[in-house]
Amino acid sequence: MGRAQIFGTRIRRGLGIGTTRDDGGAIVVVELLGEGGGYTILGRAVTDCTWWFKVDGCDMTPALIDEEPILRRGNWVPTLQDVLSQINRGWYRLRAREVHPKFRKA
Fold this sequence. Notes:
The radius of gyration is 13 Å and the shape is elongated. It has a five-stranded antiparallel β-sheet. It contains two helices and five strands. It is of the alpha+beta class and 106 residues long. It has one domain (3-103).
């Protein structure tokens, strides 16, 4: 198992979410990984054509000095643009580990 796979698994375990759904019936829209951290954007269908999104993040940098990772849970927002504005400005440099098929063209 590669480092990215292990890292992604640690993020999901740390945030308490699975690869496809969390307790609220949300799906993983995209999982973004980078050096020392990452984000998981979740989506929840409100109606047939309306979705709400939230971002959960993990910063593993403190683990380098034997401290606990920093975990962040976002709030539900109505657009992907809103959720992207909640994360680091350099998010576009992160690598997508997982993208849900419904959102591959979004």
